[in-house]
């Protein structure tokens, strides 16, 4: 979240939180997945269901340098510092396994 990292476990109290750029890790009894997320919101309802709404999410192992370079050039000329900052951070995750 914008306030830092935390875990949502079984029995978690209902929660609505703003999400910042970072790594999202989803762990179940059988597997784990990681995503680089840009920003968004998370809701934990009173039944323990979690809903995430994010503006962008990428599996680290799927990050492609050429695609990021193209977006970076466009951001630098058209979209501004926030987009460039996001792409620079995303580039640092290229091919990693979160």
Keywords, please?
98 residues; alpha+beta; three-stranded antiparallel sheet; 30% strand; elongated
Structural summary, described in words:
This protein is of the alpha+beta class and 98 residues long. 28% of the residues lie in helices and 30% in strands. The protein is built from 2 helices and 6 strands. It has a 3-stranded antiparallel beta sheet with strand order 1-4-5, with no helix packed on it. It has a 3-stranded antiparallel beta sheet with strand order 2-3-6, with no helix packed on it. Strand 2 (22-27) and strand 3 (32-37) form a beta hairpin. Helix 1 (65-79) runs antiparallel to helix 2. The longest helix is centred in the C-terminal third of the chain and has 15 residues, at 65-79. The protein is elongated. The relative contact order is 0.18. The model has no long low-confidence stretch (mean pLDDT 84).
Strand % is 25-35%
Shape: elongated
Sheet with most strands: 3 strands, antiparallel
Counted by DSSP, the helix tally is 2
Unreliable sequence segments: none
The oligomeric status of these chains comes to single chain
Strand order of the largest sheet: 1-4-5
* Strand/helix succession: EEEEEEHH
Q: Count of DSSP E strands?
A: 6
Please tell me how large the radius of gyration is.
15 Å
